[in-house]
């Protein structure tokens, strides 16, 4: 039998996304030898290909701008928003180190600038969101970091290589990894940091935790299969927690990223029209379309799928007219200084776009209400009741049940043909995993830490009770800070 290749180092970091690259940067600066393992053919993760920015308080930029929002407000709001189901020590440490982390990003070549939220309901929120100065430059700078880390020959970055197991006997002996040909290697080491990004790429874990897993548009890091969570659990770590999905907006496909195409079907998805769930009932004030996390949560709450209902008159109106409703994604695509459009239309291609979407199943058309209900498998009485009540709300400009603002009560749904856009809850990852202490060490049920292991980023329990809050940038901010915390703790432990 071929002998397993053996390496030796002080720290193994599993994953090179936000938390892993942050940990690596700290160890590199402090000259602590490490091997960074990355399953993909390049460094990255959701932090590189996805995230636009991050949350922080008391960054130098915020202080210079006189931002009047700090630790007390952030700690109180995040604790109460999560109904006290938080790891207070960890939350506190994250918040207190989040400002200094912004300065580190500059040193890493990933600069950010504090700016106003891109989401309409948060335009007047305190300045807490730090946006990468240039998305493409961020990706390029990230790709250059391995060269920097390995230049003096102390560290190694192994791409196409995944951690698969641990050799642990009253302390860590080695991390067992495999390259993408299945060839195993043994890395003898003192400490390991699991920065592998949660479990949204693990179909079994997803279906076990989420009833609606099959309906979700999964935009997260598919290479994240829960390695760190599973291996810590095997060593006795407490993984008890509510499942927390990083739900974020919705889209008319469970496979195609809405950013990847330009269709009127996407435009109408992003407006507060009439929505019904899989029981044909309205389920939320559709104005929630302007808050991505809460919009996603509302869809997740009704089984990950709902329908936007409209009739031919509405479709024709959009074809020929400008409508005073803002596309909820409009501000995401504005360059700095560009003034966002607060209306949509005319949409001259709308009929063609809908006809194409009917062929792909993203839109269903019915010649009358009965036909639509039949094709969608919805109870006809409930659908008729929902349309009647909604049309009444439009007529009276008064939504007595869900309280949608009068200026959004624009289109009744009265004359066939009727259309239903089939919407899926989009997710950016998962946000529950392992219980940790304030140093990001996994803990057992009795609270005692498991020696030599660190768990960071999306793998960690304790910041969210059950869903992502409407603060932007917490996930990525925490990922960078938690990687930094783990690396600093290792430094202390090795001293
Ligand atoms: C499209 C998109 C947009 C987003 N926008 C924002 C935003 O604007 N603000 C915000 O706060 N958050 C945002 N997020 C979430 C944010 O990116 C994540 O919370 C953050 O990246 C988590 O960091 P992480 O290090 O835990 O995981 P990641 O950054 O995903 O990194 C995990 C890495 O581990 C690697 N890996 C997995 N398993 C193994 C293994 N066994 N061995 C070796 N390597 C492994 C993966 O390949 C990956 O490179 C977004 C996410 C997406 C998908």
In short:
With 495 residues, the protein is an alpha/beta fold.
What can you tell me about this protein's structure?
With 495 residues, the chain is of the alpha/beta class. It has two domains: 5-242 and 431-494, FAD/NAD(P)-binding domain, CATH 3.50.50; 245-426, Alpha-Beta Complex (Flavocytochrome C3, Chain A, domain 1). The chain is built from 15 helices and 18 strands. Strand 8 (161-168) and strand 9 form a beta hairpin. Helix 1 runs parallel beside helix 15. The longest helix is centred in the first third of the chain and has 21 residues, at 88-108. Residues 14-20, 37-40, 44-47, 50-54, 162-163, 195-197, 219-221, 223-225, 227, 428-429, 457-458, 473-477, 479 line the site of flavin-adenine dinucleotide.
Helices and strands in order, then pairings?
Elements: E1 5-8, E2 11-14, H1 18-29, E3 34-37, H2 46-49, E4 53-55, H3 60-64, H4 71-81, H5 88-108, E5 112-115, E6 129-132, H6 135-150, E7 156-158, E8 161-168, E9 172-179, E10 184-188, E11 191-194, H7 203-209, E12 217-218, H8 227-234, E13 245-251, H9 264-269, E14 274-276, H10 292-301, E15 305-311, H11 312-320, H12 350-360, E16 363-366, H13 369-376, H14 380-396, E17 418-430, E18 453-455, H15 474-494
Parallel strand pairs: 1-10, 2-3, 2-11, 3-7, 11-18, 12-17
Antiparallel strand pairs: 4-6, 5-6, 8-9, 9-10, 13-17, 14-15, 15-17, 16-17
Flavin-adenine dinucleotide binds at residues 14-20, 37-40, 44-47, 50-54, 162-163, 195-197, 219-221, 223-225, 227, 428-429, 457-458, 473-477, 479.
Domain FAD-dependent oxidoreductase 2 FAD-binding: 11-466
Cofactor: FAD
Protein name: Fumarate reductase (Flavoprotein)
